[in-house]
Amino acid sequence: MSEIRFALAQIDTCVGDLDGNADKVLDYAHRAAKRGAEVVVFPEMTLTGYPIEDLALRATFRKAAWDKANWLAVELAADGLGDLYVVVGTVGSAAAEAGQDPRDAKPTNRLVVLHDGVVWSGYDKHFLPNYGVFDEFRIFSSGGRSVAFEVNGRKLGVAICEDIWQDGGPVAELAKEHIDVLVTINGSPYEEGKTHVRREIAAKRAAEVNAPIIYVNQVGGQDDLVFDGGSFVLDADGALVERSPQFVEDLSLFTLGADGRALPSTIAPDLDPDEEVYTACVLGLKDYMAKNRFTGVCLGLSGGIDSALVAAMAADACGGANVWGISMPSMYSSDGSKDDAADLARNIGAHYDVQPIEPLFVAFQRQLDLHDVAAENLQARIRGVIVMAYSNSKGVLALATGNKSELACGYSTIYGDAVGGYAPIKDLLKTRVWELARWRNRAAAAGMGIGGLRIVGNESGEPGVALPDGVMIPVNSITKAPSAELRPGQKDSDSLPEYALLDRVLAAYIEHAHGRADLLADGFDEKTVDTVMRLVDRAEWKRRQYPLGPKVTALAFGRDRRLPVTSAFRE
Fold first, then answer.
1. pTM of the full structure
2. Which domains, and CATH codes, for the chain?
């Protein structure tokens, strides 16, 4: 048998942008054909973007998506690409396959093959994930059959994402058909450590069908999800023979040899774990801005580590010239904090304004005469009003700067420092914030300038704008004791356990679902356990109102963890 050349088209799409997504498929199909590919594989639901959530339930959207798939097939043929096999994901329905109006049936998560001017074959996702961030069982109908098609005498089996994560189903059926390669299209969201899990699962399926597996994953941000790409090919024995880089659009080629083995190709290196998480946060912000047509951001700069890291991420996402940093000192702000905020803005080339809040605070106090926590929260809410005023007046995206530790414990002021349209570090524990800040400074010292991440839009890895003195985040912002500076001498440790301890308890309680007895058995002291559990349980109402931000851990607040706001249960 002859060789077959495959192209893995790892692209960034936008939910609902049927025209733009189809144009990108057409563009990458041309690129693949010029490089000699016979089959080009795109990610899950490429034409519609993913996840489409309840858009799938809109009949007009399903009809438009089906029409676009047919238009694309015709356009490919008209452009001289009719001989190319284009594997692409979209939304489908049983009615559409039967030639009926696709508005008349429940939708499916569909893979289609475009060839010779027609939508040539279709496969509906069998296993519908219904956990974590996924609600597909609620939206889609499950497919009931396996699908394979032939190219140059070779049999290609197909699957969609979750189909390879579960035993049985279509992959088990394909194993009986003696396929030559398993093609799987994916929309697998990023979380730290998931890369190796994907490969382990794929290796299991490759062994099951005794054939190489092609795994093409989506890249880019979609609301609170980040897709990291990292597409790959494994041989039947599980050996890695091709891997695309993470967080960039990419077109990689590999060849299925005449002997049925996947020939070695290019293997992109793994990223440093800190670089991987930092890049995921930046890509989430960058794509949220681009897809919602924001050209700039604004945020409060306190001189602390959280706002410093968010500002650094923002500069890497959209350039320092598009960042508005606002220092809003009060009578309790230290000179050191004000200097750190100014230094950070200078380092990243951001606009920097100073808006003292004391006159506004005094005016409110004349009217309200607040004390203690109410007076502290008033300061935060005045700052929130200023940030949102900048957002309104300049048409830029307001960024919230809270971290996961604070969000877990409710250590923020609702309608104060919690305001914003996007929260880039909401899934980072405080200790992780410090780690990423140190990594970004190391990267700066090694020559990575502002915007120097290898990310969608910077596929070539340009080094970015040079940083003065090779420093991005002021060292003092990293090393000083964290404080909200809402009263004299305040430290975070006045209200919370030390972060090194707090984050260990939070990881056990939230991410690993350890109960009180489990936490005590883990070796945490009773007072700390009871304090942390009480703070977390009482703060659900705040978390429900917090801006969305990128999921980078196995269990992020939001769709991953759905607890009632009103609940009397306590351990």
1. 0.95
2. 4-260 (3.60.110.10), 275-490 (3.40.50.620)
